[in-house]
Amino acid sequence: MTLPRVLTVAGSDSGGGAGIQADLKTFQELDVFGMSALTALTAQNTVGVHGVHEVPPEFVTQQLDVVLGDIGADAVKTGMLATATIIDAVVKGLTAHDVTRLVVDPVCASKHGDPLLAPEAVEALRTRILPLAEVVTPNLGEVTVLTGMVVRTRADMAEAARAVKALGAGWVLIKGGHLPDDEASADLLFDGATETWVTGPRHDTRDTHGTGCTLASAIAAYRAHGLDVPDAVRAAKDYVSGAIANGLRLGEGIGPVDHGWRRRG
User: Fold this and answer.
1) Average pLDDT of the segment spanning 73-93
2) Which CATH entry fits the domain spanning 5-253: 3.40.50.11930, 3.40.1190.20, 3.30.460.10, 3.40.50.11540?
């Protein structure tokens, strides 16, 4: 039996709720073979990020070379990239292996507000990674970092989608989960011509750690299975919505979503 292959390029969350741990759990639940290239190690729990140790850029490229050169990948997802030099290393590895089915989660900060991207790396994210992306999945805070726009309404989301699309990604998925006074969790998918709203229920829970990582990884997994981008986004949204609804009350802070909710449901 051959499984679709998906590679995550991201940081490690020692608490297990986000980063490569969330990505690999998602891959397992969605029936793809998961692989990883680490960009950083974090000392992290439900309360916050307490330390970050960046992986040497040349070793990031080496991980990509040995995995993609031997096993290959049907889709790749990027998460925490930390610094401009690591971004350059990732770009080098992805372009050397002609990766085109790339889902970019432009991680800038943790759920607790702890920075996960150096300020000088923002330009590299804009100009080096986004033009390679098939899909980019910014939340409202990340939209502000990437474009300077502050998003407060669905109309703002539509404007922001155009601004992010201008940075070069094939598809933009603006995540609207943090919109105020909105009964539904509404995301906007935009390909440069068509706006598609993807909605789901809003869950009253604080246990949402790992939602962004999980959504991007689920999109990559469904793309590896052969779904087109809109269907992959819808399927990923459904999976993440269930994971949030079944969030795990672990630790003293923001608990993780439950990646295995379908098996336990």
Assistant:
1) 97
2) 3.40.1190.20
